[in-house]
Amino acid sequence: MAIIIDHVNYIYDADTEMAHAALKDISLEIPDGQFIGLIGHTGSGKSTLIQHLNGLIKPTSGAVYFDGKDINDPEYDRKALRAKVGLVFQYPEHQLFEVDCFTDVCFGPKNLGLSKKEVELRAYEALKQVGFNDEQFYQSPFDLSGGQKRRVAIAGVLAMKPQVLILDEPTAGLDPRGRSEILGLISKLHEEMGITVILVSHSMEDVAEYVQRIIVMNKGEVAFDGTPAQVFSYHKELEKIGLAAPQVTYVMEALESEGFPVNTTAITIDEAADEIMKLFR
Predict the structure, then answer these.
(1) Which secondary-structure segment (H or E) carries 190?
(2) Of 92-96, 98-102, 154-158, 192-196, where does mean pLDDT reach its minimum?
(3) Which residue among 55, 99, 135, 218 is least enclosed by CB atoms within 10 Å?
(4) pLDDT 10s digits, 58-93
């Protein structure tokens, strides 16, 4: 169920003096099962872009296709689309509102018109997928930590059985341990379920270890699109648009500049460690 974005433009406050372009001629293909990092500083257009993928925003011009069909066609079933293309917003409290976690996760599949048994089975499976114990099911979501709230919000989308999972800054506001746990969970879900994952972030470190492809947004345009190694090789250009490569990249380049024969394309700590250990063999 590939997503195709075809020459999409989006203008906020069109036909007013406040009009400004948030997206400029974006064309991308997102194939099934890929793990993508969507990177960009605040205001780069990444959040606007992902809201086009499940029809929350309609392009000013251009088209978005899911499974070969234009999702903005008047006859297209966008309710069904939002079950297939699930979006977890940056702040989980925007998606949590029921008295307990289990009831909250039931909300999405219930609106699909499923039987009570199927709804509850989906909610149970989704909460288990994000690591919840049975005794946590009936806690108020508002009594949870930030990381646990993220898990419930993710479970609410997983209960819809999406084919595409989009997460907007899922580690925002979390401490290092919480960030690592959430990113590990997302990676595990991708590996076990085989679904397409789009991880939105402004942090290169968050995506370096996990994603297969990075799309970098800048001022409403795609600045770079490629594998992590390809994108991070342009770290000087990334710096000019307010981003940077992972710290590991700079460490490896510093070692090379001192005459050590290391591979400067290493982008994770494990890769860098392997390169450094080669120096002692």
Answers:
(1) helix 176-193
(2) 92-96
(3) 135
(4) 999 999 999 999 999 999 998 889 899 999 988 766
Nearest to 39 by CA among 197, 278, 243, 265: 243
Strands lying side by side in the sheet with 61-66: 20-30, 3-12, 61-66, 69-70
Mean pLDDT of the chain: 90
Nearest to 67 by CA among 31, 25, 33: 31
| Nearest Cα residue to 152 out of 169, 173, 170 | 170
Local structure of 12: helix, strand or coil: strand
Query: pLDDT (tens digit, 9 = 90+) per residue, 221-279?
Result: 999 999 998 998 888 899 898 888 888 888 888 888 888 888 887 788 888 888 888 88
Instruction: Please state the φ and ψ torsions of residue 112, each to the nearest 5 degrees.
Output: -85, -5
User: 3-228 architecture in CATH?
Assistant: 3-Layer(aba) Sandwich (3.40)
Any idea where the domains of the chain sit in the sequence? Answer: 3-228
3-state secondary structure of 198: strand
What's the one-letter identity of residue 271?
A: E
The Cα 205–Cα 141 span in angstroms is 29
From residue 181, how far is each of 14, 134, 177, 178, 186 by CA, in Å? 41, 19, 6, 5, 9
